[in-house]
Amino acid sequence: MHTNSARSPRANLKPKLIIADDHRMVAEGVQHILDEDFELLDIVADGDALVDAVQRLQPDLVVADINMPRCNGMDALKRLRHAGFDTRFVFLTMHMEPALAVAALRAGARGYILKNSAGEDLRNAAQQVMAGATYVTPALGARYISGQMTDMRNLTSKQLQVLRLVGEGLRSKQIALQLGLSVRTVEAHKYTMMQVLGVHSTLELVRRAQDLGLLF
């Protein structure tokens, strides 16, 4: 088991940080916010590079986006947990779905923060996570604490619309046209539902939705 929790040579040093985001300006903003409290080891732009960097450098904290090329942040976290690394993860994302926050925490993340409130939340979240706590951005925290996020079938009405059209065999472009959404938004809804329902492909998503009675 790899762990960063007890390293006496670092006792009086700043904890070590890796940032993962495919938007360089976002990554540099995170660096600026946390620079006073953390020593930056690396900035990476995709999930594969993140897995490699954590294995090589063994940071104390990772701040990562979920949507990244090659391997998304959630899958990178799962790969590292499977390999025995218990590095603390904080996800910094634009996804506001409470159920996706639950999926991230169940995968092993210790924090979940929205990008639109990063300036207010990030430093506080990093400090709490390093102290052993779990931090969910306040915009989602009330629903998280109240337990409304525990039902993995509690998808939004828009997600259910997308899901039913996926179940009818429509492609993302067709769904986007029918619902008046962008293709990217449709893909984001599909991704969130796959994470929430614990599947890895559109076919598995449809089958899982059928099993749960979400399609009729």
TrEMBL record:
Superkingdom of the source? Bacteria
Q: Which PROSITE patterns match?
A: HTH_LUXR_2, RESPONSE_REGULATORY
Task: State if Transmembrane helix is listed as a keyword.
Answer: no
Q: Which GO terms describe its molecular function?
A: DNA binding
HTH luxR-type domain location is 148-213
The answer to whether UniProt assigns keyword GTP-binding to this entry is no
Which keywords annotate this record? DNA-binding, Phosphoprotein, Transcription, Transcription regulation
InterPro entries, alphabetized: CheY-like_superfamily, NreC/VraR/RcsB-like_REC, Sig_transdc_resp-reg_C-effctor, Sig_transdc_resp-reg_receiver, Tscrpt_reg_LuxR_C, WalR-like
Q: Which residues are recorded as modified (4-aspartylphosphate)?
A: D65
Supply the Gene3D superfamilies for this chain.
3.40.50.2300
Chain ranges of the Response regulatory domain: 16-130
A Pfam family name for this chain? GerE
- Its recorded name reads DNA-binding NarL/FixJ family response regulator
Q: From which organism does this entry originate?
A: Dyella japonica
Lineage in the entry? Bacteria, Pseudomonadati, Pseudomonadota, Gammaproteobacteria, Lysobacterales
